[in-house]
Write a structure and sequence with these properties.
The protein contains 13 helices and ten strands. It is α/β, with parallel strands linked by helices. The chain has one domain (7-184, 263-292): Alpha-Beta Barrel (TIM Barrel), CATH 3.20.20.70. The termini are far apart.
Length: 293
């Protein structure tokens, strides 16, 4: 949710009954502090911060999180052993995002309170194994004793109920909120997301860090390079710097890196976050009732 989930989206989700998360991966430490302060002013409900552990100024981000007394941190893209103890010693609940049962077990050993089992369908950075949510969630649930949160392709109440049937105790939703009114993404990006049909995203850059992308001109360059066996250095040069910001935040839908999940094909309109939460929850209740009848 880099370039999408700032204080406005986070507080809106929390106020609607979900757990909003500030996406710190696109923020300098001083910017993160500003978003945390504004989020506290906008909601009295719990919220958290998502921190990619490969962030270059990770120490400074953690200092901000602790000094601003954030109570919940979701970590991703790195070894949970590095920061879990530090956070838990300060009374912070820690959840780590994983793409396999092996990494879920390592996260449990590191002391996290819960894991997010994120399947192949998810947007943004993903696992190389390409394990789908339908397969991954029960595997992770069987592998660990801590709570499991399902993610990847969950964009409806039906999907929430399916995740529960697989053993998950909660769900994490990204794509639906990336195109919400409160998302900080550019309007061009939001309009592109709601126009997507089935099959218009693809997992790419697997030799670097796998990421699910909308098929645009930038994606085509990556695809063609990978097809002819381009080196890692060449792929890095094609990616360059600030490509995700260019696409998601600045609205270059042709040459920008447009990260989104397969669930985008369910997103047909730009809606307020509260409406998205309400629709998903009501559908979940309705479908669960119909099955149990």
């Amino acid at each position: 949710m880099v370039w999408c989930s700032g204080w406005q989206l986070t507080s809106a989700v929390s106020n609607a009954g979900g757990l909003g998360l500030i996406g710190a991966g696109s923020m300098y430490p001083n910017v993160l502090r500003e978003h945390i302060v504004k989020c506290k002013e906008a909601t009295k409900k719990p919220f958290g911060v998502n921190v990619p552990l490969l962030y270059p100024e990770i120490e400074k981000l953690m200092e901000v999180i602790v000094s601003e007394e954030v109570k919940i941190v979701f970590t991703s893209a790195g070894n949970p052993k590095t920061w879990t103890g530090f956070l838990k010693d300060r009374g912070i609940t820690v959840v780590h995002v994983v793409s396999s049962s092996k990494f879920a077990q390592k996260s449990e050993e590191a002391g996290v309170d819960a894991v997010v089992a994120e399947g192949f369908e998810a947007g943004g950075h993903n696992g190389r194994e390409e394990t789908t949510t339908l397969c991954l969630v029960p595997l992770v649930c069987d592998a660990v004793k801590i709570p499991v949160i399902a993610a990847g392709g969950i964009a409806s109440g039906r999907a929430m109920l399916a995740a529960e049937a697989l053993g998950a105790q909660g769900v994490q939703v990204g794509t639906s909120f990336a195109a919400s009114v409160e998302s900080s993404a550019h309007e061009n990006f939001k309009q592109k997301v709601v126009s997507l049909a089935e099959g218009e995203t693809m997992l790419s850059l697997k030799s670097l860090t796998p990421v699910r992308l909308i098929k645009n001109n930038f994606y085509k360059k990556v695809f063609e390079a990978e097809e002819r066996g381009a080196s890692i250095e060449e792929l890095k040069n094609i990616l360059g710097r600030g490509r995700a910001k260019r696409g998601i935040f600045e609205g270059d839908i042709i040459e920008g890196e447009l990260e989104i999940g397969q669930g985008a094909s369910f997103v047909k309109a730009i809606k307020p976050a509260a409406e998205i939460v309400k629709e998903m929850w009501n559908e979940y209740l309705l479908v669960r009732k119909s099955i149990m009848a």
